[in-house]
Design goal:
Number of domains of chain A: 1
Shape of chain A: globular
Helix content of chain B: over 70%
Structural class of chain B: mainly alpha
Family (chain A): Belongs to the binding-protein-dependent transport system permease family. CysTW subfamily.
Keywords (chain A): Cell membrane, Membrane, Transmembrane, Transmembrane helix, Transport
Helix content of chain A: over 70%
Structural class of chain A: mainly alpha
Protein name (chain A): ABC transporter permease
Organism (chain A): Agromyces soli
CATH topology of chain B: MetI-like fold
Largest sheet of chain A: 2 strands, antiparallel
Oligomer: heterodimer
Order of helices and strands of chain A: HEEHHHHHHHHHHH
Subcellular location (chain A): Cell membrane
CATH architecture of chain A: Orthogonal Bundle
CATH superfamily of chain B: MetI-like
Shape of chain B: globular
Chain lengths: ~280, ~300
């Protein structure tokens, strides 16, 4: 074996240290979820009480359920809008694409807190001043707030995927007398599928994670999980919060594994997967 | 026909973003020219002025803008310094078979709830926590750890929260700089460091740009990290904006602050880009890297995709 130089050793040690840094708080949360005690911060003894407590506390269950529902609907909305927009950008280029990309860029660089404070009065205006009852519904408000950034992400992903593969397949399909809808369904969509799937899962997790916009647009009765945690922050964090986080982490890992598996089946390398999931 | 089909496919996204992004943000910009009419009103626009902007720049609030900019720049620089070697190690030094796993590992915290990760740090940094105890036992510090609820804790939190956003684009960029190119540089007599600074790093520049933007922009608007780890001292503009809307009920002032925040972010990015351009000017003229047709396009691709 080739002798390793000191700089390589330093690099490897640094790499491992940074990974330890990245995982430290996550490990702390997982360990804390087995804490039998009143407060998350002070360790008492090992036990499964916090997981059992979840069955008795409807507030936590409701919050998680609201989050899952919102995440699912927001992901569907974002994937639908983003996929269509992404396909349009890749396959029907023109001046409009620059305008649209400019809008997407604006959406992605606007800080979440600005979206949040902008959506709050806007929802009040639509729901109460204009009297459109739809916008007083908690879930709809959350879905709208969570979908904005995700629409941009899915559009980029789908566009990047299709721009990489030129339109010859669609042309061939048209030459073989497939009607445009058939070409769309049987050629374009399958081509875009890995990006669509990655975009869907990314949107779902982004929505589950969204705290800032959710805290502003939520109406009482439909408090999503992160907002519940945020309010618990003021009243004292209990180990149940860590327990829920542990469960959600396991579920997220399963989803992550699924995406990686699908993408690998589609023949992407590690770098491609990183690029696809890293938001472009 | 092709063109109209394109517009029709993108139409729903256009409408969605115009109604739920452009219109509300436009409304905030409109509010920012108004004023707070009384104790019970939130905003009024019958007299338009720039007074709210002047108010937002008054010394008390200005200090918060300064602090936010400091945390934003320091956090981004630290992320770059910490993330660059890691990304290089992952893309070049680590065995290729393990790269997929390493990428997945970087993304796990990225996909864990932002708030919960930050709470994890709150637990670690607590004065009565185990890190504090361990450091005291070793004798590194005398009393309990006093990092939580300081600007240092906020900085640590934002570096932690945004580091994956720096590592991923850098990894993609380094991964695209082909191995044969580095070997060629070494064959031509360049040392390891010379190769890194004159071949690898210039080619990975798009990844650096993407990483810096992906970290700096959300970091400047951060609200959660500062709330969880900063207490009163770690004030960020995000918290200021939120408090104007939630507690002070002064929507006009909050709107002006939000607009200023966006302006500060854009101005900093522009100034930063200008500075980098000026500083690297002598290097670029000396260090021009001219490659064959396929390489530059491959190397410039990540920035378009990641930054876009």
């Amino acid at each position: 074996m080739k002798q390793r130089s000191w700089s390589d050793v330093v690099l490897s040690v640094w790499g491992v240290l940074v990974f330890v840094f990245l995982f430290a708080p996550i490990l702390v949360i997982i360990v804390s979820s087995f804490n039998v005690g009143r407060l998350l911060v002070s360790w008492q003894s090992f036990g499964f009480d916090s997981f059992l407590a979840l069955f008795e506390k409807p507030a936590i269950r409701d919050a998680v359920w609201i989050s899952v529902q919102t995440g699912f609907i927001a992901a569907i909305v974002a994937t639908l809008l983003g996929t269509l927009a992404g396909i349009a950008m890749a396959r029907h280029p023109g001046k409009w694409v620059w305008w649209f990309l400019g809008l997407l860029l604006l959406v992605s660089v606007t800080p979440e807190i600005v979206d949040a404070v902008a959506l709050l009065p806007w929802m009040v205006f639509l729901g109460q001043d204009l009297g459109i009852g739809l916008f007083n519904d908690g879930i709809i408000r959350l879905v709208i707030g969570h979908s904005l950034f995700s629409v941009a992400v899915v559009s980029y992903l789908v566009r990047a995927r299709l721009v990489g593969q030129e339109g010859q397949l669609e042309e061939a399909s048209a030459d073989l007398y497939a009607k445009p809808p058939a070409t769309f369904r049987r050629v374009t969509l399958p081509l875009a599928m890995p990006a669509v799937l990655a975009g869907f899962l990314l949107s779902f997790t982004l929505s589950l994670d969204n705290t800032v916009i959710a805290a502003f647009v939520q109406v009482s009765g439909t408090t999503p999980w992160p907002v519940y945690v945020l309010s618990a922050l003021r009243s004292g964090l209990r180990p149940e919060i860590a327990a829920v986080s542990t469960i959600m982490l396991v579920l997220t890992l399963l989803a992550l594994g699924l995406v990686a598996y699908v993408l690998r089946r589609a023949g992407d390398s590690a770098a491609d997967i990183a690029r696809t999931m890293g938001g472009g | 026909m092709r063109k109209s089909a394109g517009v029709a496919l993108a139409f729903p996204a256009w409408v969605w973003l115009l109604v739920f992004f452009v219109a509300p943000v436009g409304m905030v910009i409109w509010f920012s020219f108004g004023y707070k009419p009384g104790i019970f009103g939130t905003h009024a626009n019958d007299v338009l002025s720039f007074d709210r902007y002047a108010e937002a720049m008054s010394p008390t609030f200005f200090a918060t803008f300064q602090n936010t900019l400091w945390v934003g720049i320091a956090g981004t620089v630290i992320c770059l310094l910490v993330g660059l070697p890691v990304a290089y190690w992952m893309a070049v030094k680590a065995p290729p078979s393990r790269r997929g796993l390493l990428v997945a590992l970087v993304m796990v915290p990225f996909w864990t709830n932002f708030l919960v990760r930050t709470i994890g740090w709150q637990v670690i940094l607590a004065p009565e926590g185990w890190l504090s105890g361990a450091l005291q036992a070793v004798g590194l510090i005398d009393g309990p750890l006093e990092l939580l609820y300081t600007r240092g804790a906020v900085l640590l939190g934002v570096v932690y929260n945004y580091l994956p956003l720096m590592i991923l684009p850098l990894f993609v960029a380094f991964d695209r700089v082909s191995g044969p190119l580095r070997e060629a540089s070494k064959d031509l007599g360049a040392g390891r460091w010379t190769t890194f600074f004159r071949v690898t790093l210039p080619l990975a520049r798009p990844g650096v740009v993407a990483g810096v933007l992906l970290v700096f922009i959300p970091l400047m608007g951060d609200y959660i990290t500062a709330t969880v780890l900063g207490g009163a001292k770690g004030n960020m503009v995000g918290q200021l904006v939120a408090s104007q809307f939630q507690t002070a009920q002064n929507w006009a002032l909050g709107s002006a602050m939000a607009v200023l925040l966006i302006i500060v972010i854009m101005a900093t990015v522009a100034v930063g880009a200008g500075l980098v351009w000026l500083v690297t000017l002598p290097f670029r003229s000396r260090n021009r890297l001219v490659l064959g047709e396929p390489e530059p396009s491959a190397a410039s691709k990540p920035v378009e995709e990641v930054a876009a």
